[in-house]
Design brief:
Elements lengths: L1 H91 L5 E10 L6 E17 L2 E17 L19 E17 L5 E16 L15 H6 L6 E16 L4 E12 L6 E11 L1
Antiparallel strand pairs: 1-2, 1-8, 2-3, 3-4, 4-5, 5-6, 6-7, 7-8
């Protein structure tokens, strides 16, 4: 009986040991799983944190790109408005060429007095921003008519000595062509003075009435010869012209003005002056 009890005790002891080892293994396995779960949770937390940071960076980048897009859009709109304004100004602004009609008087060459003068002038821009103004090439074509009543001394007539041919009326047409340069100051929007100069080609047409002639021959009287007056039908002379004036802008394309010019001709008493009012147009 005692042996049976001892055997039972040993069996119970072995069973308890076995159960203890099994419980220990289960507890150890549970701890490992808990650690693994904690590690997974930590890794997930870190990944979530990293994702959150990346999302914040992406959000900031998106905001920056949207701000740049808005700024570029505003800048584009401003540039477009400036281009439209510039295009509008360019459309309204003349190219810079000018045409003017000039009407006035000419102090006649060869002492023929003062007569009517008119001219057409074309100015083509060469440099638009030269200092406070612009430089233009100038073409000016003018016509003038002057006359004078002169009483002449008797002249020698080889055909009929003692005859007194007279020449009472002296009429002279002058055609002048100026090819030069013109500088116009455009600092003021309304009042714009200018200077001009260049070589000129002058044609003097003699339309004098010789009066009564004996035998159809009337030599050039000494009085006209002393004046340098062209004999025959006239003459052509080279010269130099220089002058200036001022224009007053009525609109961007229309102006009024006045000018004066001295025309030097290398012939006795051949130089003359022209002056008058101007009506001009820009295009």
């Amino acid at each position: 009986m005692l042996r049976k009890n001892m055997f039972a005790c040993v069996l119970l002891l072995l069973l308890a040991v076995l159960l203890g080892f099994k419980s220990y293994d289960a507890h150890a396995a549970s701890d490992q799983q808990i650690q693994e779960l904690k590690q997974m949770i930590e890794e997930n937390r870190r990944e979530n944190e990293e994702n959150r940071r990346q999302n914040e960076l992406l959000s900031q980048k998106i905001e920056q790109l949207e701000a740049e897009k808005a700024a570029n859009q505003v800048q584009f709109q401003e540039s477009e408005a400036q281009m439209q304004e510039l295009a509008s100004k360019q459309t309204d602004k003349p190219l810079g060429a000018e045409f003017a009609l000039i009407i006035g008087a000419q102090s006649g060459p060869f002492k023929t007095g003062t007569g009517f003068y008119m001219a057409g002038e074309l100015g083509l821009p060469l440099y638009r921003n030269l200092g406070p103004g612009k430089l233009m090439g100038l073409i000016n074509i003018g016509w003038a008519k002057t006359d004078d009543d002169v009483t002449f001394e008797p002249t020698i007539n080889a055909v009929a000595p003692g005859a007194l041919p007279t020449q009472e009326s002296v009429t002279l047409d002058t055609v002048s062509i100026l090819l030069g340069l013109k500088y116009k100051v455009e600092a003021h929007p309304i009042v714009q003075p200018f200077l001009m100069a260049g070589p000129s080609f002058n044609i003097f047409l003699n339309k004098s009435d010789p009066g009564n002639q004996v035998g159809g021959i009337a030599p050039q009287p000494d009085k006209l010869q002393n004046r340098g007056y062209p004999s025959g039908q006239g003459s052509a002379e080279l010269g130099i012209a220089a002058g200036g004036g001022v224009d007053f802008n009525l609109t961007k394309k229309i102006f009024l003005g006045a000018e004066g010019r001295y025309n030097y001709v290398d012939r006795s008493n051949g130089s003359f002056g022209t002056y008058g009012g101007r009506l001009g147009f820009r295009f």
